[in-house]
Amino acid sequence: MADFYQNGIVTTMHNLAQRSNEDLEAELETFSKTRPMGLILPSLFSELEGDALPAIVDHLCEVPYLSEIVIGLDRATEEQYRHALKFFKKLPQHHRVLWNEGPRLKALDAKLQKLGVAPKELGKGRNVWYCMGYTLASGKTESVALHDCDIVTYERDLLARLIYPVANPMFNYEFCKGYYARVADGKINGRVSRLLVTPLVKALKKTVGHNDYLEFIDSFLYPLAGEFSFRKDVLNDLRIPSDWGLEIGVLSEMHRNYASNRTCQVDIATTYDHKHQDLSLESVDGGLSKMSIDITKAFMRKLATQGETFSTESIRTLKATYYRIALDYVEMYRGDAMMNGLDLDIHNEEKAVEMFAENVMTAGQIFLDKPMDTPFIPSWNRVVSAMPDALEQLKEAVELDYQEFSE
Q: Are 259 and 237 in contact (CB under 8 A)?
């Protein structure tokens, strides 16, 4: 981004000087001698057969400062797990692939389920949670980055810029969120962030009133970015949602556990594009429709923990306030797109806003109907309290899978 504006209460690190990746990586190599670094890659097996992940792995082979790469593999058979081990074998860094559907990890998951400390839903949140557990168990890294595996515009400086704030020993940041402009193929993307999260936070600030948490969330330029980095200590107390509320849930936990000056955001890419979800106008069970419901519930759950009270009437007011603000944002994006020679389909933008508005009501009703719903995955501190050798069992299961199936 071309500006240097500090937005809100979270430090923003801009890309002001187009610093070379070689320069960044040289400095990170120096940091790595006292603060070893790792990377978590939550992946579906299908992504190994796409265009993005093979290119990402080729880039990672050239990264000199990483001590460990942890790959979480979802929806994979034994044959596919064997293929994944071969696929990632070229990585020169120490790496392990967590076969989440494998008998060993499923057996451990069953033990944790009996104790009531395992993820209740399949999905990215569960995958990330087990990868975080293995990162704690391996003890090889102090600073860790996480990014998605479907980034088709991936370059090595994305990772370097993402991990730099938590790797530099001169900084005191515990957590860093990546941000970027979602522009590709001549149009503006990122509909859930642009058309749901930003106007919804503005609407909540109007209906709930001044709130430190909402001010914190409103400081992030791209709160739904799947790219973030953190110090290893963050993992012990982190409670993350298992649904589409993962990114908002992680930010909520950082707000709960740390002062805002321990969190920052950084510009990590000039262009960014990845797999796009369907809008799912006809169903609330998938695509952007389910995502919008889960995210809205995540906001309501967080605000309820701070003493805010929701009712059918207050949710109706929130929906009406959101709808008006979101339509105003559509006009803002239209002008921005035209100025930059980009396409913006006003009809589709407003259809998305109408669906999101309906889903604010749907999410609110679900929240009111299920007051005992606890979608958060327990922290690893709690898991270890319930099963003291849980991390050792996790590490052993991953190592035994690796030894048995690698060639």
A: no
- Triad 242, 245, 250: Cα angle to 5°: 85
* Sign of the Cα pseudo-torsion (246, 248, 252, 258, in order): positive
In sequence order, what DSSP letters do the residues of 134-198 get, joined into one string? HHHHH---SEEEE--S--TT--HHHHHHHHHHHH-TT---SEEEEEE--EETTEE--HIIIIIIH
CB of 332 closer than 8 Å to CB of 401: no
> Which of 98, 285, 330 shows the shortest CA–CA distance to 195?
330
- Alpha-carbon gap, residue 398 to 214, rounded angstroms: 39
Distance CA 221, CA 211 (A): 18
| Residues 208, 217: Cα–Cα separation, whole Å | 14
Q: What is the DSSP string of 33-85?
A: TTS-EEEEEEEEGGGGGSSHHHHHHHHHTT-SSEEEEEEEEES--HHHHHHHH
Nearest 5°: the CA angle 219, 246, 316 is 70
Q: For residues 288 and 354, what is the distance between their CA atoms, to the nearest angstrom?
A: 13
User: CA 48 to CA 43: how far, in whole Å?
Assistant: 8
DSSP letter string, 294-356: HHHHHHHHHHHHTT----HHHHHHHHHHHHHHHHHHHHHHHHHHHHTT-B--HHHHHHHHHHH
Say which amino acid occupies 319.
K
Distance, in Å, from the CA atom of 211 to the CA atom of 149, rounded to the nearest integer, reads: 35
pLDDT digit string, tens, across residues 177-233? 999 988 888 999 999 999 999 999 999 999 998 899 999 999 999 999 999 999 999
How far is the C-alpha of 319 from the C-alpha of 313, rounded, in Å?
A: 10
pTM: 0.94
Torsion angle in degrees (nearest 10) through CA of 103, 382, 230, 377 = 60
CA-nearest of 281, 306, 299, 282 to 367 is 299
- CA-atom Rg of the chain in angstroms: 21
- For residue range 154-173, list pLDDT tens digits in order: 999 999 999 999 999 999 99
